[in-house]
Amino acid sequence: MERFRFLDLVNPRVFKTWNGEVPSEKLDLLKEMYGDLFDIPMLVSQLCFIYRDKDVHKDSCGELLKYIFQFHLQSSIPEVVKLLKMNGVISVTSASVERSFSCLKRVKSYLRNTMSQGCLSSLCRISIHKDILSEKEDAGTLHEEVVKRFVEKPRRLAFLYK
């Protein structure tokens, strides 16, 4: 998590503490990790503008990004918008990974490691993507799709309903 401290550059809660200046240690972390994706001098200029403008000080990065798009400022401060989008993506990806690992732990402890890897993988996918299952269940198509997939596999017995 120390490597992602540069995301504080677009954290509106700490804008006031920097007195309109970009903190060099956080900027150095950004340069080290993603320096080739940004025009650093332009980013510094745009961040200074945001830090000094009291109207832009919001409660969260999401609100800040909504504000920028609401007033069509994305063409004026493109580097900041890029950093805000990166902030949203990094947060989501790390949360989804943590959710997947906690799901795997729950499934494995429930099954007590008594099944094959393929079956365990399928159960984890079902547990992680339970929103898809609930949508199909609500639409009434889940049972039909499961039966159709079961029948499609080659078997010795014909599982066809007559």
From TrEMBL:
Matches recorded under InterPro entries: HATC_C_dom (IPR008906)
GO MF term set: protein dimerization activity
Domain HAT C-terminal dimerisation span(s) in chain numbering: 72-123
Superkingdom of origin: Eukaryota
Protein name: Zinc finger MYM-type 1
Source organism (scientific name): Paramuricea clavata
